[in-house]
Design goal:
The chain is of the alpha/beta class and 102 residues long. Helix content is 47%, strand content 22%. It has a 4-stranded parallel sheet with strand order 2-1-3-4, sandwiched between helices. The mean pLDDT is 86.
Length: 102
């Protein structure tokens, strides 16, 4: 099983290439859709890394792909600027999920 990166910037792509992960850099929604279609056509790719920017800018596309293709794991990762999430995002996620304040 292979991993593949779809990034919005060259720096993240370069870092992942140094780690041996292939990928591409895209900026527009149509480019992202084409890259996802290319990845889904390759049966060897089982994990797709997406920079968080795509989840913020194109949530309907990213969520639709995650829900309709369960055989491929889509993971949103921070880019070189760090995460766009709040520092306590895990705690707030757990609080929301179980209904208790930790």
């Amino acid at each position: 099983m292979k991993m593949y990166l779809i990034s919005d910037n060259i720096d993240t792509w370069t870092g992942m290439r140094l780690a041996g992960v292939e990928g591409c850099v895209v900026h527009e929604k149509e480019e992202l859709k084409q890259a996802i279609d290319k990845v889904l056509a390759d049966p060897e790719i089982g994990i797709v890394l997406l920079t968080e920017k795509f989840g913020r800018d194109f949530p309907s596309l990213v969520n639709d792909v995650k829900l309709t293709h369960p055989q491929t794991l889509f993971v949103e990762i921070p880019d070189r600027h760090g995460t766009g999430r709040k520092p306590d995002f895990i705690t707030s996620y757990v609080n929301e999920a179980i209904g208790l304040k930790l």
